[in-house]
């Protein structure tokens, strides 16, 4: 395939991936890797490198907007970034020793988990129960709600930190933001309001991805010719997605369609991983 | 001078992230246009992992490539700027916490920077 044709195909595909990823909250990275590997026959190592770059672009771009709105809990993000960056470093360093078949299967499993997570009901939970560690680390916060400031407290700091370590390893290993795992840690374990956990997770994704990108950059995973259309496409798609989100409040059916597509792609990755054809 | 507050830090961080993405993506775009112009008809194959071309694998090659207007060198420079964007955000967070006299969080932020630095060095060794 010529450079022009491949670039155009990837640009369109990445735009759609970014658009859907942003509308459903799954992130563009999880769709980009199956798109590149299954549909275009790109080696999974190049796909991971390119996806990682697009993850940094979208998370930094949207974090800029969220941070200004004052919903992101910067201290909580900073504290948990110790876990995610350390995990990401480990993930990127061990990636070299793990067979690509296994990485493909693991990717499929995480993909299905993310799809299930995106379908889950989001209940706004506010907890006021005090945790000594959260108090000491100044993790409890507040955000502007429709009827004034909403204050919340953070629970099970240790459990959340551990889960973030795992999220970091997965992010570093697979070249995705692993936003689903981060939200799982903050929503499910630390009991943080949904609005805060999604924006804070997004805030952390850029730094986490950068910690593994510095390894991949030196190992030749990040090819400029491939990363260029992926990063531009996903970022533009995510921007369009956030514009649409403002206008349409509900996107329930879209989530279902996307979850089905993602599950199909995931099973393809798992199948190819097991049969050794990735 | 007013005391430096969390809201000031939010404004600075937001600005850094936005500017970083805008600048790096512009560089990547310019590099991409040059790359397509010069190599649009070249055949490419990414089906087997062989690393990246020599001239974009080290800082010297990239800098030389920028001056000779090689598209992929310019893209790679943009990618490095993009990776640096969240790291610069962390550096400014550290400065912000010092100004707030929040030394616990200054230490936490410096620790995150050290982890990224370690990652950079260990990636080089491997």
Automatic annotation (TrEMBL), chain A:
Pfam annotation, one family: TauE
Subcellular location(s) per record: Cell membrane
Single GO cellular component term: plasma membrane
Regions that span the bilayer: 7-40, 46-67, 79-96, 102-119, 161-181, 201-218, 225-246, 252-271
Record membrane topology: Multi-pass membrane protein
Main location: membrane
Top-level division of the source organism's lineage: Bacteria
Keywords annotated in UniProt: Cell membrane, Membrane, Transmembrane, Transmembrane helix, Transport
The family this protein is said to belong to: Belongs to the 4-toluene sulfonate uptake permease (TSUP) (TC 2.A.102) family.
Protein name: Probable membrane transporter protein
Source species taxonomy: Bacteria, Pseudomonadati, Bacteroidota, Sphingobacteriia, Sphingobacteriales
Automatic annotation (TrEMBL), chain B:
Transmembrane segments: 12-37, 73-97, 103-121
Domain of life: Bacteria
InterPro entries: DUF1634
Keyword presence, Transmembrane helix: yes
Keywords: Membrane, Transmembrane, Transmembrane helix
Taxonomic path: Bacteria, Pseudomonadati, Bacteroidota, Sphingobacteriia, Sphingobacteriales
Organism: Mucilaginibacter gossypii
Pfam family for this entry, one: DUF1634
Protein name: Uncharacterized membrane protein
């Amino acid at each position: 395939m010529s450079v022009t044709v491949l670039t155009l195909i990837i640009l369109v595909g990445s735009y759609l991936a970014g658009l859907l990823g942003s509308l459903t909250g799954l992130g563009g990275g999880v769709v980009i890797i199956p798109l590149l590997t299954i549909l275009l026959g790109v080696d999974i190592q190049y796909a991971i490198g390119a996806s990682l770059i697009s993850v940094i672009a979208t998370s930094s771009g949207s974090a800029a907007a969220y941070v200004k709105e004052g919903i992101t809990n910067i201290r909580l993000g900073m504290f948990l970034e110790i876990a995610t960056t350390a995990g990401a470093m480990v993930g990127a360093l061990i990636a070299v020793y793990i067979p690509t078949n296994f990485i493909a299967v693991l990717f499929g499993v995480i993909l299905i988990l993310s799809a299930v997570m995106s379908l889950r009901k989001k209940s706004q939970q506010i907890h006021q129960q005090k945790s000594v560690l959260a108090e000491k680390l100044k993790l409890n916060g507040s955000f502007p709600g429709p009827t004034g400031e909403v204050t919340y407290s953070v629970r099970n700091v240790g459990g959340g930190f551990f889960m973030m370590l795992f999220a970091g390893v997965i992010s570093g290993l697979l070249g995705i933001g692993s936003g689903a795992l981060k939200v799982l840690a903050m929503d499910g374990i630390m009991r943080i309001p949904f609005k805060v956990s999604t924006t804070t997770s997004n805030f952390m994704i850029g730094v986490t991805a950068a910690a593994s990108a510095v390894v991949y950059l030196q190992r030749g995973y990040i090819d400029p010719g491939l990363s260029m259309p992926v990063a531009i496409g996903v970022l533009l798609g995510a921007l369009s997605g956030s514009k649409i989100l403002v206008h349409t409040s509900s996107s329930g059916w879209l989530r279902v369609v996307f979850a089905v597509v993602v599950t199909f792609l995931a099973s393809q990755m798992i199948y190819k991983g097991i049969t050794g054809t990735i | 001078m007013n005391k430096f507050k969390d809201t000031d830090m939010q404004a600075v961080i937001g600005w850094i992230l936005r500017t970083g993405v805008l600048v790096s993506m512009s560089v990547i775009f310019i590099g991409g246009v040059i790359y397509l112009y010069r190599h649009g008809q070249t055949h490419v194959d990414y089906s087997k992992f062989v690393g990246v071309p020599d001239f974009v694998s080290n800082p010297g090659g990239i800098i030389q490539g920028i001056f000779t207007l090689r598209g992929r060198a310019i893209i790679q420079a943009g990618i490095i700027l993009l990776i640096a964007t969240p790291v610069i955000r962390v550096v400014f967070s550290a400065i912000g916490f010092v100004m707030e006299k929040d030394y616990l969080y200054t230490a936490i932020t410096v620790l995150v920077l050290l982890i990224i630095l370690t990652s950079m060095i260990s990636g080089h060794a491997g």
